[in-house]
Design goal:
Elements: E1 12-18, H1 22-32, E2 44-47, E3 61-62, E4 69-70, H2 73-84, E5 89-90, E6 94-99, E7 105-109, E8 114-122, H3 132-135, E9 140-142, H4 150-164, E10 168-172, H5 180-190, E11 194-198, E12 209-212, E13 214-217, E14 226-229, E15 235-238, E16 242-245, H6 247-252, E17 259-261, E18 285-287, H7 298-321, E19 352-355, H8 359-368, H9 373-378, H10 383-390, H11 394-403, E20 407-410
Parallel strand pairs: 1-2, 1-8, 2-5, 6-17, 8-18, 9-16, 10-11, 10-16, 11-12
Antiparallel strand pairs: 3-4, 6-7, 7-8, 13-14, 14-15, 19-20
Bound molecules: flavin-adenine dinucleotide.
């Protein structure tokens, strides 16, 4: 088995997840790895331009208190499930999401890829990350650990910039104005220039050097500096000795570069508004983690992710089978306890069968359930063809396929009619 999750996705998925931080990866695993009688596994894909793990991959973290410290355990464990269950983590940013009349979402990525999804989980955190992780603690530092520490953090960052022979780059948005007096003091003491890289607004200081746009690469510092993308799509290179990211500003108001149609309802701070099931006011759109507001903590992001992932699963199941699905003990559904077969949804013969595992693994797990794995995978990908190839009653076939989490079933999509 490869140590990395797949990096490519088919153009049609059941659940698309925006962001591969703890919230997004937890959501992805829960929508894919469901359990219970007839709990159909769904096809999931995750999108993130940055290395998976989000902020939880930056350094060791504390889960609930000093006795519970984690190194790279959170991203590592979540990614192990993405590898095992073939959940793609695509290294592209989502640029826009549009709700379509058919109840699906049209997603466009930074690489120009179009993907259609029945449900979307937004887990984009406070801002889009790039390659900062490897430089965190050396060339990159952040305003995060509490405002009382900011003067000392900024003084250290300014000295580091001076030693590296380049300006101190302050990354934030209009809310970073609050930091401006402290930045000015630290820069004056270290005798270093400041360049502001702001998504919007200005630092409120006459004569301040401002580059407008979103940080896209920190780079090594030897190749001409930071790469900054303007809202018009243009790219600028900004020389920098040290980079200081103003998370204090992003915590108060998250970045808003993703285009939505329609825009989900937000809190006055700009965070996405969700109910306790992780649902936004756009049907089929769920959100989890830091992008929904404080408290900013990994434990909460994981819990939110689980909630949004299971809610996205229910949404897709209801749309596909016209009834509530049963999620084992996570949310028991009212089913006929005396008739187990009735828990398995009825699969129309013209539904498409989408294997979710690599062919060899898929055949093996089907064989292990006493199904003719190779024969099923060689059959046309219609539900009726699979029933014929299996030679057993449809409910028995689907129950075994779903329990093995080997394949999912769905209606044929536009333009796919002649595919199989
Ligand atoms: C320095 C630091 C230390 C911390 N220490 C702790 C700690 O000790 N304990 C603790 O509990 N919490 C800690 N936190 C907070 C914790 O890391 C976050 O609350 C948690 O990571 C939030 O998870 P998330 O998945 O919501 O967001 P994130 O971890 O921010 O992940 C969001 C992901 O979404 C991606 N994304 C954004 N926009 C797009 C887009 N348009 N398309 C695709 N992908 C996108 C981002 O690139 C990112 O990878 C710390 C945070 C920082 C910055």
């Amino acid at each position: 088995m490869t140590a990395h999750p797949p990096a490519d996705t088919p153009p049609r998925v059941d659940v698309a997840v925006i962001g591969a931080g703890p919230a997004g990866l937890a959501a992805a695993v829960r929508a894919r790895w469901v359990k219970g009688h007839g709990a159909v596994p769904f096809r999931v894909a995750v999108f993130d331009p940055a290395p998976p793990g989000g902020l939880a991959g930056w350094k060791s973290n504390m889960l609930t208190g000093p006795a519970w410290r984690l190194d790279d355990e959170v991203p590592g464990r979540l990614l192990a499930d993405c590898v095992e269950w073939r959940i793609p983590v695509v290294r592209e940013a989502v640029e826009s999401v549009r709700a379509e009349a058919e109840g699906t979402f049209a997603i466009l990525t930074s690489a120009g890829r179009s993907v259609r999804a029945d449900a979307v989980v937004l887990a984009a955190g406070l801002r889009r990350l790039c390659d900062e992780r490897d430089a965190f603690g050396s060339r990159v530092s952040v305003a995060f650990q509490g405002a009382d520490r900011f003067p000392a953090l900024l003084a250290k960052a300014a000295r580091a910039a001076r030693a590296a022979g380049g300006p101190l780059a302050l990354v934030g948005h209009g809310g970073s104005r609050a930091l401006a007096p402290l930045v000015a003091r630290a820069a004056a003491e270290a005798e270093v220039e400041v360049v502001w890289v702001l998504e919007d607004g200005d630092p409120g200081q006459p004569g301040a050097r401002v580059a407008r746009g979103r940080l896209e690469a920190v780079g090594s510092g030897e190749d001409g500096g930071l790469r900054v993308r303007g809202e018009d799509g243009g790219e600028a290179r900004i020389p920098a000795g040290h980079v200081f990211i103003d998370y204090y500003a992003f915590e108060a108001r998250p970045s808003r570069w993703l285009r939505w149609e329609p825009d989900p309802s937000r809190l006055p701070s700009g965070h996405v508004r969700v109910d306790r099931e992780g649902a936004t006011d756009v049907p089929g759109l769920f959100a989890a983690g830091d992008c929904t507001g404080p408290y900013y903590a990994i434990a909460r992001a994981l819990g939110d992710g689980v909630t949004a992932g299971l809610s996205a699963w229910r949404h897709v199941f209801r749309g596909r089978f016209g009834r509530e699905g049963s999620l084992f003990a996570y949310r028991p559904g009212g089913g006929d306890l005396a008739n187990e077969a009735a828990w398995v949804p009825e699969v129309p013969g013209d539904f498409v069968v989408d294997p979710l595992l690599e062919p060899r693994t898929c055949a093996r797990v089907l064989d292990a359930r006493a199904l003719p794995g190779a024969r099923l995978l060689a059959a046309p990908r219609w539900a009726a063809a699979w029933v014929a190839a299996a030679g057993i009653p449809a409910p028995d076939l689907w129950r075994a396929v779903f329990e093995a989490r080997a394949a999912t079933v769905r209606p044929v999509g536009p333009g796919e009619e002649d595919r199989w």
